[in-house]
Amino acid sequence: MNDLLTKAYEIESPGGKIYTKQWMPANALSEIPIVLLHDSLGSVELWRDFPEQLALDLSRPVIAYDRLGFGQSGPRTELPGLDFIAEEAVKYFPAMKKGLSLTRYVLFGHSVGGAMAVNIAAREAGCAAVITMASQAFVEARTVAGIVAAKHAFEQPGEIERLRKWHGAKAEWVLNAWTDVWLSPEFAGWSLAESIGQVVCPVLAIHGDQDEYGSIAFPEFIAGRAGGRSQMLILENCGHMPHKEKPAEVVEAVKVFLEGVKDISDLIVGHAHPEKTFL
């Protein structure tokens, strides 16, 4: 069995410290890490054992970090602005990348983390490939309804304690950062339209057919408009948490996807006639 080494870091960013964790197989076959970007209520620890599974099964390093205001990263006082998805790409991710001396990496984003991955890849030449999982591509009626239902659920007695377990005193901020922004009328027109076409590295869009926060119109949008080669995988009988509901299928899909990228020099070159594959 391949040994797995783990390290934790605190990296300085423009707004405070960013908590980062790395899983490194002792005999990794690739030095290019997979960088995980969590969802709206997520954190490094809420990935559970998924980073370890990826690192061992794909034999490559995996990195996850708590966005500022989340998990074990530093707190934020003001709620994120309407441009918070793009802001992650231009302000916070570059600080994390610099702190870890990353030059090449694969981005893997869950939910809003997928949208952030697209924005980062559109700006960063070092991104070798993008994997989105249950990612939003615009604001859908199902998205709004799902967030409204979740907000009401968290208003029930004791429910906020679920978030405090992972975010401590920042739990209320984390919840408001999600619900207040996404339910704002001013945010209703947000989409990935401006950034997805600038992503020229290979893209894999994974989505559950029962996702309560978005239909398959999201992966169709991402895979269909990507500027390079792209694939779409729809998981049957799966909701918004494919890495928890269908972990083996997700890991296998990522493994096959990355193995299919044969030429490392091809990873950052756009194609006049990109290949679109819908699985």
Explain what you see.
By secondary structure, the protein is α/β, with parallel strands linked by helices. It is about 35% helix and about 20% strand. It has helices at about 50-60, 85-100, 110-125, 140-155, 160-165, 170-180, 195, 215-225, 240-245, 245-260, and strands spanning about 5-15, 15-25, 35, 60-65, 105-110, 125-135, 205-210, 230-235, 275-279. Strands 1-2-4-3-5-6-7-8-9 form a nine-stranded mixed β-sheet, sandwiched between helices. β7, α8 and β8 (about 230-235) form a beta-alpha-beta unit. The model is unreliable at about 265-279 (pLDDT under 50).
- Unreliable sequence segments: 263-279
User: Within the largest sheet, what's the order of strands?
Assistant: 1-2-4-3-5-6-7-8-9
Mean pLDDT rating: 93
The gyration radius over C-alpha positions equals 18 Å
Distance between the termini: 32 Å
Structural class: alpha/beta
Question: Quick recap of the structure?
Answer:
It is built from 10 helices and 9 strands. The chain is α/β, with parallel strands linked by helices and 279 residues long. The chain is globular, with a radius of gyration of 18 Å.
List descriptors:
single chain, 279 residues, alpha/beta, Rossmann fold, 9-stranded mixed sheet, 10 helices, 36% helix, globular, disordered C terminus
Please render the helix and strand layout as text.
Blueprint: E1 4-13, E2 16-25, E3 34-37, H1 50-58, E4 62-65, H2 84-99, E5 105-110, H3 112-123, E6 127-133, H4 141-154, H5 160-167, H6 171-182, H7 193-196, E7 203-208, H8 217-225, E8 230-235, H9 242-245, H10 247-259, E9 276-278
Parallel strand pairs: 3-4, 3-5, 5-6, 6-7, 7-8, 8-9
Antiparallel strand pairs: 1-2, 2-4
Helix pairs in contact: 1-10, 2-3, 4-6, 5-6
